[in-house]
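User: Could you check the structure of this?
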Amino acid sequence: MGTRDPRIDAYIGKAPDFAKPILTHLRELVHAACPEVKETMKWSSPFFDYHGVMCNMSAFKQHCSFGFWKGALVLGGDAKDNDGAGNFGRLTSLADLPSDEQLTEYIHEAMRLNEAGEKAPTRGKAAAPKVEAVVPDDLAAALGENAGARTVFDRLSPSQRREYVDWLNDAKTEATRAKRLATAVEWIAEGKSRHWKYAKS
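Assistant: Sure, the predicted structure tokens are below.
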């Protein structure tokens, strides 16, 4: 028998309205295809384990993502690499997903790979879905007050967003964090990455 994690119920409950049906549908589909799947939370996102990590999903302000841990093996040439949005690009509605039949086939392949102990490829495209950094409340609030910075931040790559989040979270004092927050919003509004000073011209 599989397990359900109440933290995922809470995660879906807090997700944006557009995301709730997507996340709920994916969750139920995974359980239907893999009755022994176990739910958990890793890196603040819902994960589904079966003989190891199998797949995960995430919700963001304007899109959802879903991906297989061994995506390159599961999907082969069908996998998308869309700005870190799992294996299927940015999902904004159920219509963005492959058919239930196709997704079920992918889940069964992921199960088979895990049962066989197959390892994710270490070269070429990363098989693991990229998990985006969780934007802390103070940064989210500051960006909410600066529409220009919010727009630029949403367009940054996942790694660039993570650099700003990590920089804030690494601050040792509240004063340092506040100073970094102000600087971050200023740089973001100007279209700069965290390490723009070291970028090649």
